[in-house]
Amino acid sequence: MITTRRVATVVPWAAGLAALLAWEAVVRLRGIPAYILPAPSLVVTTLWSNLDSLLASWLYTIKITFGALFLALAGGVALAAAFALSRTLELALYPFAIALQVTPIVAIAPLILIYVDSTTAALLICAFIVAFFPVLSNTLIGLRSADPNLQDLLTLYGATRWQRLRWLLAPSALPYLIAGLKISGGLALIGAVVAEFTAGAAGRETGLASRILEASFRTQIPKMYAALTLVALTGIVIYWASNALSRLLLGRWHPVERDRL
Amino acid sequence: MSAKIELAEVDKRFANGVEALQSISIAIAAGQFVSLLGPSGSGKSTVLRLIAGLEAPTGGRVRIDGAPADQRTQAMSYVFQEATLMPWASVLDNVALPLRIQGSARRTARQTAERALAALGLADRANAFPGELSGGMKMRTSIARALVTRPAVLLLDEPFAALDEITRQRLNDELLTLWSEQAPTAVFVTHSVFEAVYLSQRVLVMGGQPGRLIADLSVELAYPRAPAMRLQPSFMQHCQRVTEALERGQACAQANRP
Predict the structure, then answer these.
(1) Are B186 and B17 in contact (CB under 8 A)?
(2) Do B100 and A150 touch (CB under 8 A)?
(3) Taking CB atoms and an 8 Å limit, are B101 and A157 in contact across chains?
(4) Closest by alpha carbon to A48, among A229, A226, A252?
(5) What is the DSSP letter of B222?
(6) Using one digit for the tens of pLDDT, what is the confidence trace for B97-148?
(7) Would residue B67 count as lying in a domain?
(8) Which of A126, A228, B187, B218 gives 20 to 30 Å between its CA and that of A160?
(9) Nearest to A42 by CA among A219, A220, A218
């Protein structure tokens, strides 16, 4: 299939715009009340009139999301490297990692909120737990997937452990790490929002989830949509950013990026 | 620079119980070009890996210039059937890798690598990535990487098996030129009778499972060798002898099968 770069840029935007216009048209033509389905234009004006409170909450959610993502990245990579070096360590700790991964975060969050004084710290921990497993598991597979012939070659030339890590294992693991990061980015946002729903926190230090809850209690449907829009926007930006990072790091050599449009 | 290779009564049994080699004794003089020829599963690659010190023998001894293979001091290089390049590094950095491992600074390693690439006609592809090269160019890069350290022993495991006939012939000639310049001891594993005779001074025919040495045939054809030589009767006679030995090996492998 022949698709030019321009088509690839225009089509998603055009489709998004068309969907918004259709939404607007349906709401207006059918006269659907705003407390059931607000039109996109109303969502935008609501966003604008509540900008101060929404912006502060948005920044808070962004802080939790990226903080958790950073922790997941650092923790996941460090743990994967440790596992790659020591099979015993992997056997001992991997079950814990899996247990944390498979237990729903909404079930753990209340406990963490009890144990940890600072709500911010508790939310960070929750989002981290959701986000770190894909990084750990992908990086570990990546570290183990180095070409066995290249492994032999490095042995033949007497490479040290550090040289092997730097020149073979780390670059081999990079595409896997980035694939993990793409998953974790979305999960960190989900973790941040879900944990905040569970926390049900009120006050200054709160994120978009609290705004959505508030608006829902007061049946301010347009405001719910406005906050939701910001959550979705954050997710899309994370997706874009991880794709850009992937292109930057793998651009020229990895088939995933090299054969792109 | 070159080194002498000795395998004395070498047995190799893998951890999974497969017996790969049985009582193999081979002595290869310094600077010699030797081919290992035999059907799949006759242990050719295992011999190479034992010489490289990538595997340890379960019986017997492998010595490089008198020292055990895993304690050798001489530079050794290995060319695999696949080019085995790092896809994330440029052609130049791939070739510079062995020098970097040995502790050369990035700049000096790259300069030496540039000369090695030029010797294989790849000077203008130094900044390309492996994914951008043809199969023949990848293999050239792999050979440049093997020769950049000026090894005393050069091990080649069916390096040209996946290439087309014309590229293969051209690389055979280039390999011989580079071998005569650097004069390492070369051990070349192949399936091809013609390739074995064309390249080497000696053809070791292997057969059976576990692998044994069937024949040790010397090739009395003068260097430099040229493609035209393939049409001469003496070349054909050598090929005939090697083919007969190969068939003998297959016959005795079949006779031994339970």
Answers:
(1) no
(2) no
(3) yes
(4) A226
(5) P
(6) 999 999 999 999 999 999 999 999 999 999 999 999 999 999 999 999 999 9
(7) no
(8) B187
(9) A220
User: Between chains, do A147 and B100 touch, taking CB under 8 Å as contact?
Assistant: no
A95, A158 Cβ separation under 8 angstroms: no
Closest A-chain CA to B103: A159
- So what CATH class is A55-258? mainly alpha
Q: How far is CA A65 from CA A20, A238, A239, B2, B203, in A?
A: 27, 10, 13, 60, 65
**Residue ranges, chain B, pLDDT below 50:** none
By C-alpha distance, the chain B residue nearest A249 is B88
- Chain B residues interacting with chain A (CB cutoff of 8 angstroms): 49, 52-54, 76-78, 80, 82, 84, 86-89, 97-98, 100-102, 129-131, 149
**Residue B103 domain-assigned (yes or no):** yes
* Angle at the Cα of A145 from the Cα atoms of A140 and A149, rounded to 5 degrees: 145
pLDDT for B141 equals 97
What is the ipTM for the molecules in this complex? 0.92
- For chain A, give every domain's residue range: 55-258
The 3-state DSSP class for residue B36 equals: strand
Q: Look up the domain containing B101 and give its range.
A: 85-149
Residue A261's pLDDT is 40
| The model's pTM | 0.84
Residue among B87, B97, B101 minimizing CB distance to A253: B87
Q: Which among B147, B150, B151 has a CA at the least distance from the CA of B159? A: B147
Please tell me the total count of domains within chain B.
Answer: 1
8 Å CB contact of A158 and B78: no
Q: Do B87 and A156 touch (CB under 8 A)?
A: no
